[in-house]
Amino acid sequence: MSAARDTWSKPPFIANPVLRWTVYLGAIAYFGWVGLTMPIDWNRVAEGIVRAGRIFGGAFPPSFERSQLLMDGFLESLKISVLATAGGVLLSIPIAFMSARNVAPLPIFYLGRAIIIIARSFHPVIVAILFVKAVGFGPFAGVLTLIVYSIGFVAKMLAERIEEIDFGQVEAMRAAGAPYLSTLVYAIFPQIMPRQIGLTIYQLDSNLRASAVVGIVGAGGIGATLANAFGRYDYDFALAITIVIVGAILLSEAVSGAIRKRIQ
Amino acid sequence: MLKITDLVKRYGSGDPVLKNLDLTIEGESVVSIIGSSGAGKSTLLRCINRLVEPTSGSINLNGTELTSLRGKNLRAARRKIGMVFQSFNLVDRLTVMENVQSGRLGYISTWAAVTRRYPKKDIRRAFELMERVGIAHYANTRADQLSGGERQRVGVVRALMQDPDILLADEPTASLDPKTSEQIMGLLRDLAGELKLPVVINIHNVTEAKEYTDRIVGMRYGRIIFDDKPAQLDQAAMDEIYAGSPHADRTDDMAAAS
Questions:
Q1: How far is it, in rounded angstroms, from Cα A160 to Cα A163?
Q2: Looking at the domain assignment, is residue A180 inside a domain?
Q3: Where are the bilayer-spanning segments (chain A) (predicted)?
Q4: How many degrees, rounded to 5, is the angle at CA A181 between CA A175 and CA A184?
């Protein structure tokens, strides 16, 4: 018997050395090329810093003078996100079942996945622009936008949870001769329920945040108020709005964290 | 009476897992099926209630041919076949009562199931059976709060709620400690007698098979090579059932075929 080896090194991530060095050198070359060809004008960057200083200077101290306007915008955002979460989550449940490989037949599965992919492929701002064109300025466009946004996320996560269930429970219902819907309600819903509730709370949180963004392109809510304040150079009011948004998100984060911890 | 004739099950294009298997189970006997892992015990049991689709052959339960059933008729036939699982397969987040009543899902409407409006006679039957196996006081407890032995009792009661003509148990004691395991085996034997119910049990523990069942079927790689009273299971028969490896066995088959 020969002496045991005393050297060992972790196998490289890419086994083929030619491919490995091609990838490494290619990545370095690309970044170098990007750095050299991006039109970055350092003079404008310098001017921008001064301008940013002026904006922040104008923003202090934040002005809560028009707090009525601020409150209205915020409450509208809240309404938008609550409605959108309810609608989005309700629609997500059937879509999630359609998109779970272990419970849906293949054609239905592809249809469900297609819906999710379409809902996910556009940023809410782009969807909001479309809906604002379609149904006009205002909170309704915001609700529709965030419903699409919610489906993209909730249906996908829920479908993944359905694919991870303990299938033995489904098998037990099948073995007892249970019809399809009864099987879903007894063997699958209880297993995905905690995730379902967690996702709903998370989505409410996320919709509140997104509603501020989609408001900027005209879909109502506090985002619209914020865009107006910026447009009129009311930087102190804009800061007040930002503070309220951050405060609301911190609060909802804390509440949703506490609730999610309690459901296991 | 359960009559299996010429049953073949092949997964994909490989070697069949069940090879032209014949088995008849009559009356209210408790039959155990033994054999090493991969012998096809589980597949055989699952072919009976069609959790696994047989490739060919016939399975006949009290005059109903099970292999050709579809949809509604298949569900109706499955109601009459109770099954007890190795990992219990209870719905962890539901109460024991809901788990027990899930054995009735084939009989009640989806609406009644969703709203938990179980028929009075089902509730009475559930309490009777839970009383019988000693879990009635857990009716409102979530299933995941119970110990292994208690969970398997719920599994047994759920299967019995189906009012089955036959009970299949797929290694019902493999996840339990030895003492609990014997209690469950004793329970299955006693219930078979009380309810005049034939029971087929897949089991790894040969000692328990000998003690608690009336008949032992020994399987080896898709075939039944022993079928007799427990007393007849001697060392030679044991060696034959548990000897060899799937690989060696298949090589023999090929040698015989060529």
A1: 5
A2: yes
A3: 21-40, 80-98, 110-131, 137-155, 210-231, 237-259
A4: 70
Assembly ipTM: 0.86
- Residue A28: inside a domain, yes or no? no
What is the Cα gyration radius of chain B?
19
Instruction: Give the number of other CB atoms < 10 A from CB of residue A237.
Output: 24
- Structural domains in chain A (count): 1
Question: Structural domain of residue A83, as residue ranges?
Answer: 67-262
Q: Which amino acid is at A176?
A: A
Measured between beta carbons, which residues in chain A are less than 8 angstroms from residue B49?
Answer: 175
Could you tell me the two tokens for A131?
């809906």
Is B61 within 8 Å of A158 (Cβ atoms)? no
What are B65's strand-pairing partners? B60
Q: Which residue of A has its CA nearest to B158?
A: A176
pLDDT of residue B246: 55
Task: Choose the closest CB to A186 out of B77, B79, B105.
Answer: B105
CB-CB contact of A207 with A83 (8 Å): no
Q: What is the DSSP string of A204-242?
A: HHHHHHHHHHHHHTTS-SHHHHHHHHHHTT-HHHHHHHH
Owner of token pair 């009475």:
B124
Q: What is the rounded average pLDDT of the residues B99-105?
A: 93
Cβ–Cβ < 8 Å for B133, B153: yes
- Contact list in A for residue B77 (CB cut-off 8 A) is 177
Interface of B with A in 198-257 (CB under 8 A): none
Q: How do residues B53-92 score in pLDDT, each as one tens digit?
A: 999 998 999 988 988 888 899 999 999 999 999 999 999 9
- CATH code at position A249: 1.10.3720.10
Indicate whether A222 belongs to any domain: yes
Per cent of chain A over pLDDT 70 is 99
**Which residues face B23 on adjacent strands?**
B4
User: Under a CB-based contact definition with an 8 Å cutoff, are residues B91 and B102 in contact?
Assistant: yes
Is B162 in CB contact (< 8 Å) with chain A? yes
Sheet containing strand B81-84, edge to edge, reads B81-84, B166-170, B199-202, B30-34, B215-220, B223-228
In a domain, A36, yes or no: no
At B27 the pLDDT is 78
